[in-house]
Amino acid sequence: MDDSANQDLVDMGRRSTNLQHRQFFYRKFYDKCLRATKHGIYTRMQVLLNDQTFQNLISNKSTLNLETLIEQKKIIIFKLTLGEIGSDSVEAFGRFVI
Question: Which stretch of DSSP H or E encloses residue 88?
Fold first, then answer.
């Protein structure tokens, strides 16, 4: 979300196979009206990325192969207890999983 350090990602968006994505990155991404929105996304992401528990949930080596379990149509249950992890982390991880 840092417009001074994201040109590679904007270029990737401009090469998207999705026409709407390409148009967004060519026409709207740097629009002044989106500054507040991008700052809000940046702030929320920083809160999560600074949370060690959330980092562990999304970036450590998995002990399960979720893709295989999904392909096998297995039922997968995640225990996301609010008392053990901060509520922002639990909600974000739950959304990530879904």
Answer: helix 87-97
Sign of CA dihedral 72, 63, 92, 14: negative
Half-sphere exposure of 33 (CA within 13 A, CB side): 2
Q: What is the pTM of this model?
A: 0.58
Residue that the structure tokens 């739950």 belong to: 94
Q: What share of the chain is helix, strand, coil (3-state, %, to 5)?
A: 60, 0, 40
Digit-coded pLDDT (tens) for 1-58 = 788 888 999 999 999 999 999 999 999 999 999 999 999 998 888 888 888 877 877 7
